[in-house]
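Weekly sync, protein design subgroup
Attendees: M.S., D.O., the rotation student, P.L. (late)

Item 1: inverse folding check
M.S. brought a backbone from last month's batch and wanted to see whether the design step gives back something sensible before we order anything. D.O. pointed out we never logged the input encoding, so this time it goes straight into the notes. Structure tokens as presented (203 positions):
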């Protein structure tokens, strides 16, 4: 029932060969009972029984719960959740042995292309280069660094060029967490309030 969920629902409803069968929100959520097209939003996870495929873009805290429910009902699941813990991701991997699981930190084709280019570029960089990822999002973005920033960082780290590792930092703690010439990928995040000078992206 969040912004991304509503956008996905709208895309499904505008498709000629897809049908929105259920819309599930958190237990006791304020949107329970509201209409999402022809579907009424519910907080009952059992509503997933009505679907052929589950799509999860909810908060990280519910990712494993939703995946487990999908596994119990034998439903493939598409997950765009970010901000989860390593233990959560390990559980998602285990569940993928029971049902098809498609998980991505960003579903954008442009981000996919950028990610491939970054991995190639990282292989050309030696120890004299410092890699930092700086991102700006609207102030409603929950996790920092974002899933997209972590996706980029992990692709660089997995490039095999050297022993990259990923750390987070703020501008006030750079010297402590990301000294110059270290083999770390520093991720800096900025959350900005929409204004006349800066508008939250529409997508």
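Designed sequence read out in the meeting:
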């Amino acid at each position: 029932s969040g912004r991304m969920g509503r956008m996905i629902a709208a895309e499904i409803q505008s498709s000629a060969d897809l049908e929105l069968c259920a819309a599930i929100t958190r237990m006791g959520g304020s949107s329970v009972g509201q209409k999402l097209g022809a579907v009424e939003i519910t907080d009952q996870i059992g509503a997933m029984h009505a679907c052929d495929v589950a799509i999860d873009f909810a908060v990280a805290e519910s990712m494993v719960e939703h995946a487990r429910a999908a596994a119990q009902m034998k439903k493939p699941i598409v997950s765009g959740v970010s901000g989860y813990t390593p233990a959560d991701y390990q559980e998602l991997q285990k569940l993928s042995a029971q049902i098809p699981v498609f998980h991505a930190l960003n579903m954008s084709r442009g981000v996919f292309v950028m990610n491939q280019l970054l991995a190639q570029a990282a292989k050309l960089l030696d120890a004299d280069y410092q890699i930092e990822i700086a991102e700006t999002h609207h102030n409603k973005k929950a996790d920092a660094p974002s899933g997209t920033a972590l996706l980029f960082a992990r692709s660089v780290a997995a490039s095999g060029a050297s022993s990259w590792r990923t750390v987070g930092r703020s501008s006030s703690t750079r010297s402590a967490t990301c000294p110059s010439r270290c083999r770390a990928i520093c991720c800096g995040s900025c959350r900005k309030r929409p204004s006349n000078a800066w508008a939250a992206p529409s997508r």
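Discussion: Helices lie at 3-13, 63-72, 86-95, 109-122, 147-157, 174-177. Confidence is low (pLDDT under 50) at residues 162-182, 196-203.
Action: P.L. to compare against the previous round before Friday.
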